[in-house]
Amino acid sequence: MTRLLRAWSDGDDGAFDALVPLVYDDLRRIARQHLRRRGGALTLDTTALVHEAWLRLVDHDRVEWEDRGHFLAVYSVVTRNLLVDLARRRAANKRGGGRKRVDLDRIELSVDEQADLILALDSALQRLGDFDPRLARVVECRFFAGLTEDETARAMDCTERTVRRYWVKARALLQDLLEDEESRP
Amino acid sequence: MNRFDPTRWPEVETHFDRLCDASPDERRTSLAALRARDAELAHQVEGLLEATETTARALEANAPGLAADLVADEAEEPATEAGRIGRWRLGERLGAGGMGVVHRVERADAAFEQTGAMKLLRWTGDDPVLLERFRQERRILASLEHPNVARLLDGGIAPDGRPFLVMEYVEGRPITDHCRDEELSAPACLDLVRAVCDAVDAAHRRLVVHRDLKPANILVTDDGTVKLLDFGVAKLLDDAVEVNSELTMAGGSPLTPSYAAPEQKQAAPVTTASDVYALGVLIHELVTGTVPSRGDGSVASISGDLALVVARCLHEDPERRYASAHELSEDLRRALQGRPVEAGPDSAIYRFRRLVSRNRATAAASALALLTLFGGLAATTVQSRIAAHERDLARAEARRAQSVTEFLAEIFHSSDPLRADASNPTARALLARGVERIETELADAPALRADILSAISHSYFNLGQIEQALDTAEAALAIREADPTTDPLDLARALFDVVSPLSTRGSVERADSLATRSLALRRAHLEAPHEEIAQSVSALGGVRHDQGRIDEAHALYREALDMRRTLWGEAHEKVALSWNNLASTLGRLGRHEEAERAQQRADEIWVDLFGPRYPSRVQVLNNLALSASIRHDLPAAETYLREAIGLAEELGLGEGAAAANARNSLGKVLIDRGAYDQALGVLRRSLRDNVETTGPSSLQTGAAHLTLGQALVGRGDVTAGLDHLRRGHGAFELSLGPDHPFTAAAVGLVGWGELRGGSLDSAAVRLEASIRGQRAGLPATTRRLGRTLTDAAELRIRMGDHAAADRHLSEADSLLRARDEELASWERARIHSLRAECFLELGRDPHRALGWAESAVEVLERVRVPGDDLLRAAKARAERARARSR
Hints:
The structure holds two protein chains of two kinds. By secondary structure, chain A is mostly helical. Chain A has one domain (2-183). Chain A is built from eight helices and two strands; from the N terminus they run H-H-E-E-H-H-H-H-H-H. Chain A has a two-stranded antiparallel ribbon with strand order 1-2. A six-stranded antiparallel sheet of chain B has the order 1-2-3-4-6-5, covered by helices on one side. In chain B, strands 7-8-9 form a three-stranded antiparallel sheet.
């Protein structure tokens, strides 16, 4: 597994084919272990999740530490992919009408609302790319994967300050794009 | 309608960047000025500034946090290995409850057909105490064989770490429904109840209490057989709540209120009498159609002796109920036959119980046996009531300590997975038995317990049960540390034993401190060279490795290796291990040829000792393949990978992860070698597997389409190849969006396909888009971008623009040079060959061109298969270059 990460970090995307499914499965397993109930609400400890994913998926045998940036980039893609996948499945199984309106000010959501939110944000993220692809990357890392500013900077190979500036703009645009999303048929 | 417009974004951004740090006054003036010039632009800039004042709450959090339930929902889905968990193939979900999910399963091996109901218990499975209890329970439940009890068929830990139980699959109705639907008379119903009682009694005699008897757990099949489900499972859940206070059941308490005995609701010790209570409720419900009203145990709606029987069952005081389900069954029989019942108003039962309790030994023993199942406080209280002679017994056992140790060590040795099937359940049962035995038999012999716990820890580690390994090793260490008279070398060993499971789990700091202490003790009390010193040196090396201090790790591994070679000679298991460790640090230090040699040494020794089929060889071969491909020795990589796949299939590991790795890598290597025909078989299979497990438009399937497409185009099947490439691109676009760098890379491959197919115009568009897209995203120092640039150069050459081509090639070359340094890959060879052509056409230095062209041929000859197009083209160019430079 590590070998593939190394090969991938060389830009060899044949290794990517093999890497994604392995990362995907491991992430699901690790995510299960990081679900906790605190005071009745389910939470996911994302910092621990990323850290553990790094430790587990990279068995230290053949990977240089510099590759952590590439790891984080792959991790972001895969996490986003996973969440969107889950959301799509949930939405497909739902009885009754289409997507409900998404209100970005609410954070206590039912499972169905969570699915709707993820799908709406994913679709908005894709449109964000029209403005500037790096804005989309920041959202993928900061929001979808829950990476810290430092981790995002490494994944995107830029400074933390740049990450902050991009995040500020991306958030603003996302809010606007989402409103537009809702008004579409 | 959108406020913001992508086409004006660059300007908006410029103004925003300038204004967001400005003072409110400056902002107002600037915006006013801007509004006068360009209202639309001002509107957007203002909107952006405003939006940054407040943030939607959802965006302050993150997706995994917000969507935790979505993930949790998924977490209920069992993770399988190719649709299987253990030897069972997963079927449809039958239900979900507080305890977890239940799936129908079929036996997956060819041995025979069997259907089961698999319960996956919902806890994280990390807690070693819990897992230990789970194992003990399983053992006991497995011993329950009764025609009216749904047998426990199997159990274990699923790939995702959750414990599972497979029960006999029973199709039937709850007994209450059956009696109602079939309109059975009271006597007929009660006959069924007696069968239930017999089953419950059989379980009680095996020291298993059901704890959750209710109609839903008592089914009647079509042919009228009663089957009891879920024996003992309720207890596992209670353990979970007890041990991990954060864990609460989503579905609420596992108890069914109307069937739960008073002591159960008060969390007092649960005994067989609690099951009797539930049976009483059952009888009441069957006869009257309702459950008894709470608390008073009155059975006004039942007449005669039956009422007495039920009342006896429902007594508040467990001691005053029937002592066993068998007695209940007998009294039921008497009631049905009109004979006098024991549950009569005189205190015969009471006197009987008193009689039993006077015989302390028997009572205490069975009470102890029952209560040790409940663990914790209950057991210790009873413990104190054990007769003195039983304690003496324990001591006598300890006196046979040496032979016990040897005996157990023998068991554990034979369960070592390097010598057996790694998923051998017998090994786990043995270990569980071992842990049990030492707790009861060796309570007074701590040093001995520590020894055996260490041995157990090793076996758990070898079986991959890391948390159990850690738990037992820590327990052993605690015992040693608690004793001031402990021999320093015993302490050193105990410290060492904890290090491996700790490191595997990622607790590097503690591992560091323990490894350092262990080594210090051993160096102080032993004379080098010594295997124990080597062991600790190696362990510390592992810790340094984890910490990223590679040079130190390497030095330590080297020291351990040298010591071991002195001690054991060249062909010993431990020497192999040291070579293997060295291989990994060499790899990280970039010394790949040495790494490969070291890995080979390890492999040779292992083959020598264990034969060519030792289980981890598949991964070793994968490692060797990787080393080979890093040095661009593709033929060697191919050989290793084919061997790995062959071996995996021989060992029955053909479906495993290592084999899948090898197949994927092989497909890639074959493509890189130009062996497209051979690649097809492997790649088609990969694609099929992906579609099956992740669906037709997932990211993974997309990647598989792209690889297969490359092979097809490579061998000239452009139409078919392009179809796959487009599908791959489509999948990426769907999942990641059109502007993601990975999507851009996929577009580049489609462009390459079109180039090969002769559609130069569309190829040009796609390749340029791909280059832009890849540059815009992730760090651009990737081989893929280099490849796309090279493809674009080839296109330019076809269109006659050699200058543009050379610019692309020059950039591609420097990208690859940054990664590969002096190593020669076929990609760089291709670049050099093409540059040679450009130089010739542009009239630049022909000698340089010749040099490139010839070195390219040299590399390609080594790596590509004979007759490969790329090689042929390179040779042709070299010929032309030779001719020109004369």
